[in-house]
């Protein structure tokens, strides 16, 4: 019994291996923090690119004259591709441009035309509804007055972390920008005669 008590006292006083046990306990937290320090800046940079590209595309379309041609639309998509570098927007995402008009002799506010480039699946569709229909999810204060137009650029991008974990495996990001034409309402679909080509 005396020998057993002595052995227990030695065991309680022995500090060997404590550091290894503590390190094993905090290692998962350190890994998560390290991965976060790598992924968060990528995520923030991507958001900046998405918002800049959305507003840039809307602005370029707004500067066009009527009619906006398919070649001009292709050039605008090419500019968006450059704005989004190093992210491959048309491989991992979609850009959608919609013209919303309210002609005086029309049936009210409608989606007049749409140009789209990139992934075409159920997740990457315009949130404004179908062409020819009344726009949905358009803020009421942006509804165009009679003989006015609103241009909407929507961008989707499938963000996938380099280090996917059970905590975060990625998500489909969405950015939108609104503008009005600078010169004339763009009533003619850019693909009326020629298809819009994706760069």
Topology:
Blueprint lengths: L1 H12 L4 H45 L7 H14 L5 H4 E9 L8 E9 L30 E11 L11 E9 L20
Antiparallel strand pairs: 1-2, 1-3, 3-4
Walk me through what this model shows.
The chain has 199 residues and is an alpha+beta fold. Helix content is 38%, strand content 19%. The protein has four helices and four strands. Strands 2-1-3-4 form a four-stranded antiparallel beta sheet. Helix 2 (18-62) packs antiparallel against helix 3.
Briefly summarize what is shown.
This protein is of the alpha+beta class. The chain contains 4 helices and 4 strands.
Shape: elongated
Computed over alpha carbons, the radius of gyration is 27 Å
Cα end-to-end separation: 84 Å
Counting DSSP E segments of at least 2 residues, the number of strands comes to: 4
| Strand and helix order | HHHHEEEE
Largest sheet: 4 strands, antiparallel
Order the strands across the largest sheet as they lie in space.
2-1-3-4
Estimate percent helicity. Answer: 25-40%
**Contiguous helical run count:** 4
Structural class: alpha+beta
> Could you tell me the mean pLDDT?
86
Fraction in beta strands: 15-25%
Unreliable residue runs: none
Considering the chains and any ligands shown, give keywords for the structure.
single chain, 199 residues, alpha+beta, four-stranded antiparallel beta sheet, 4 helices, 19% strand
């Amino acid at each position: 019994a005396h020998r057993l008590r002595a052995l227990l006292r030695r065991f309680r006083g022995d500090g060997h291996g404590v550091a290894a046990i503590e390190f094993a306990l905090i290692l998962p937290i350190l890994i998560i923090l390290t991965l976060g320090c790598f992924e968060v800046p990528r995520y923030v940079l991507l958001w900046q690119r998405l918002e800049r590209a959305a507003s840039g595309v809307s602005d370029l379309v707004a500067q066009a004259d009527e009619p906006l041609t398919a070649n001009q639309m292709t050039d605008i998509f090419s500019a968006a591709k450059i704005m989004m570098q190093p992210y491959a927007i048309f491989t991992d995402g979609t850009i959608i441009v919609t013209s919303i008009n309210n002609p005086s002799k029309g049936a009210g506010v409608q989606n007049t035309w749409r140009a789209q480039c990139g992934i075409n699946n159920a997740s990457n569709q315009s949130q404004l509804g179908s062409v020819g229909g009344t726009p949905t999810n358009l803020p009421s204060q942006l509804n165009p007055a009679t003989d006015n137009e609103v241009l909407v650029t929507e961008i989707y991008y499938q963000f996938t972390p380099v280090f996917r974990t059970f905590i975060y495996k990625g998500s489909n990001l969405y950015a939108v920008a609104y503008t009005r034409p600078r010169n004339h309402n763009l009533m003619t679909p850019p693909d009326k005669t020629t298809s819009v080509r994706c760069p």
